[in-house]
Amino acid sequence: MINVLLKKGLVCGTLVLFLGMSIVPIAGSISIEKEPSVAENCYLADDCYPVFNGTMGHSGWFVSPVNVSFVYDPDIVMLIFYKINEGIWTQYTEPFTINEQGLISFEWFFKNYSGDWSDIFVNHLKIDYTPPMIYLYHQVTGDKIVFTAHAVDTISGIGPFVEFYFNDVLQFTAIAPGPYQWTLQPIAHHTKFTVKVITYDGAGNMGSNSTTIKTVLTESQQSIPGNQQSNQLFHNLIFNLILRHQMMSQPFLN
After folding, report:
1. How far apart are CA 80 and CA 51, in angstroms?
2. Domain interval for residue 142
């Protein structure tokens, strides 16, 4: 009987000791009661929310790097964490700048002094501060010159038009999707002039290019001279290589 009582007492003592250890918190640890989830609303009205400062362009696009700061009640909010796109979670300590371009996903959450974690909140930003690239080519045929422009932008996309200027005077507006062409005719009396093309991307950034024609042009000229034709083919090759590199390195974003 004594052995039985001792065995029962040992079992009960071990059970009590195990239960007691299970409810003692570990010093210095942070307990997350629930995993954060994606919230439907982007802001908490008073406790904590981000502020995005930058130059605004067209269609909700920022045309500059974006400075990010948080407005929060320091008596309530203890910790703030944020993540940009697929980056790592980073603790917020001071304002910082987003230099990435394209469609940006900005996620954040916080912990209050009661030990509660907020949901994960998500903001979507559009940033494009790179001007579009535009290339200008020309070809002489008889008494006319055909000017052709190729416009490229892999972030916010090319805008709705390309403008052609003759000696800084607007001559023609070519509407997207092109072809972007303008014809100067006749050319017999033009000995030196400049043609410029201007376009905009979807964010409102302007890109331009120009060419100055210095050769005396007459109606007897039937096509581009041999050296000009070689230059034209070389420019076309360079353009195609640049365009292919851009399309492979960064997907087109609407």
Report:
1. 14
2. 133-247
Q: Decide which of 87, 105, 127 is a domain's last residue.
A: 127
**Distance from C-alpha of 69 to C-alpha of 108, rounded to nearest angstrom:** 12
* C-alpha–C-alpha distance, residues 70 and 53, integer Å: 11
Tokens of 162: 């390309």
Residues 149-197 pLDDT 10s: 999 999 999 999 999 999 999 999 999 988 999 999 887 666 789 999 9
Give the residue from 49, 34, 29 showing the smallest Cα distance to 109.
49
DSSP string for residues in 132-177: PEEEEEEEEETTEEEEEEEEE-SSS-EEEEEEEEETTEEEEEEETT
Both 231 and 137 in a single domain? yes
Question: What's the pLDDT tens digit per position in 224-246?
Answer: 443 444 454 445 555 555 544 44
